[in-house]
Design brief:
It is built from eleven helices and ten strands. With 289 residues, it is an alpha/beta fold. The longest helix is centred in the middle third of the chain and has 16 residues. The structure holds adenosine-5'-triphosphate and magnesium ion (MG). Adenosine-5'-triphosphate binds next to α1. Belongs to the ABC transporter superfamily.
Length: 289
């Protein structure tokens, strides 16, 4: 059996000076090359979970952490900072937080992580050129990072992490500041990372788009406990109607069709546009779905 790339066992965490756990009962595994989507209402602990996986909790935020996070079979706390920053890239929910504040151009900002890792300038320049052209950032390459719009900052933050080329990417609401074109660009990059066998964790509210890319889905309850984890088509077949969870449009349509066409409950439900189109085509032919 292969070792999972990321494995969380009985994780529970509370921030300092708080009286109850922020997240608890988290148990899941992710293999190399998989994309995990994380959903939950505001304040359910999605960002906290990202910090736990990348080893920033409890080293940076302190507080009380129980359970174990293994990356490639080794406790995340046993990696040194340099190893960890080459292994896991984190794109902050608020792109303003990610801007270093010490660089005067977007170019330098994108290369800053590599510079910190002590890479030679020829390699830094090559990588920076690559990601600038990948994200079409040429028009802003010599701008001051602080002079950028929220959406541009978000793309620069993504570029800076792509430049490092870690094994694991954690995107915390990477498209919150982006227009539809920018959003599509980010998802195209996620598709590309998947092709490169990178492992991606993405926190995202744009469910329909996310469903096109994720292999596994983690749903957090409001209180930070794990509601569900597994393949989206399977776990969304078992969502309790009382659960306050937004569903993908395809799943909602399927649920609306169910009573009308007397469709039995299924082990799997449609989650993408393609899924629901296939279901409807089968219905039109009079077959089982
Ligand atoms: N440094 C901190 N100290 C104490 N409590 C915190 C801290 N950071 C976050 N929290 C609390 O922990 C809970 C989970 O926060 P978190 O930011 O992880 O949620 P989230 O699901 O990412 O929310 P959002 O959708 O708004 O990004 C919230 O109640 C939040 O107020
Ligand atoms: Mg968050």
């Amino acid at each position: 059996m292969t070792t999972p790339l990321i494995q969380l066992t009985d994780i529970a965490y509370r921030y300092p000076l708080t009286s109850k756990n922020t997240v608890s009962g988290l148990n899941f595994k992710l293999n190399r090359g998989q994309v995990l989507g994380v959903v939950g209402v505001n304040g359910s602990g999605k960002t906290t979970l990202c910090h736990i996986i990348r080893g920033f909790i409890p080293s940076f935020f302190q507080g009380t952490l129980h359970g174990e996070v293994l990356i490639n079979g080794q406790s995340v706390n046993q990696y040194d900072d340099t190893e960890l920053s080459q292994l896991i890239g984190y794109i902050f929910q608020n792109p303003f937080t990610q801007i270093s504040g010490v660089k005067e151009t977007v170019r330098e900002e994108i290369g800053y992580g590599l510079e910190n890792l002590g890479k030679p300038s020829s390699e830094i320049n090559r990588r920076v050129d690559e990601v600038i052209s990948l994200l079409n950032l040429q028009p802003i390459e010599y701008k001051n990072p602080f002079a950028l719009s929220g959406g541009q900052k978000q793309l620069v933050a993504i570029a800076a992490i792509l430049a490092i080329d870690p094994d694991i990417f954690i995107f915390d609401e990477p498209t919150s500041q982006l227009d539809p074109a920018g959003t599509n660009k980010v998802f195209a990059i996620i598709a590309q990372l998947k092709e490169q066998n990178k492992t991606v964790i993405i926190v995202e509210h744009k469910l329909d788009l996310m469903m096109e890319y994720v292999d596994q889905l983690l749903v957090l309850n409001r209180d930070g406990t794990q509601a569900m984890f597994g393949q989206p088509r399977r776990i969304l077949a078992h969502v309790d109607p009382d659960m306050e969870m937004a569903l993908p449009t395809a799943t909602q349509i399927f649920r609306q069709l169910q009573p009308k066409y007397q469709l039995a409950n299924q082990e799997t439900v449609p989650v993408t546009e393609r899924d629901i189109v296939t279901t409807i085509q089968k219905l039109k032919r009079g077959g089982d779905v």
